[in-house]
Amino acid sequence: MKFFSGTKTPRSYQVILAASELGPYVPGLGQAYHTSILVDNMEYEFGGGGINVSKGPVSHRRFSRGHEMVHLGSTTLNPKAMMTLLTDYFQPGTYDMLRKNCNSFTSCCLHFLLGKAMDPKYTVMEGMATSLDNYTYLVRMVMPDYQPNPYAEGFSVELVCVDINHHQEMLQKAGEEKGKAWASLRRLRRKAMSGREILRNVLCGSKFA
Description:
By secondary structure, the chain is of the alpha+beta class. It has one domain (13-170): PPPDE domains (endopeptidase fold (from Nostoc punctiforme)). The protein has helices spanning 79-86, 102-114, 124-136, 138-142, 157-207; strands at 13-26, 30-39, 42-47, 50-55, 68-75. β3 and β4 form a beta hairpin.
């Protein structure tokens, strides 16, 4: 019978933030950005159709300037687990240009994978625009085609990050329980090997007595 130690080197995934300038620089508000996350060159981004996954920074091809690729580190967390959790929050038809957009999704991905927050420079303009629109309807006056998406109402990156933390705590506890199970199995293995050694000595002793 073959026994396994239960130890396995976890796979490491490289995490890159992709960003492109969106529209002109606005004095007093700054620059708007489209962002996405790349995990081992697989892009994850959020739009009107929900979460899109593609090879390479495909969503940035429609932008002609201000491209950035920022390596943020590596993670052992599987992007499939990230998708399982975040898909419930980023459903098709829930996109809102100001309140729940590509940057909201990227922020949640970074928190899940690395426990990091996205550089505020990518979201400062939309944050200010959202605040202005809440009180003055400025964005809707400048952009008559924009109307807040009711399906994005109440969305909060911070609340999603709280759920991510809870989810990862549960996974950690499950991993600890699995580790205890493997430790118990190793103890049984040592006992079994000791028992076989004793039996071997007994048989050898009786054979040559």
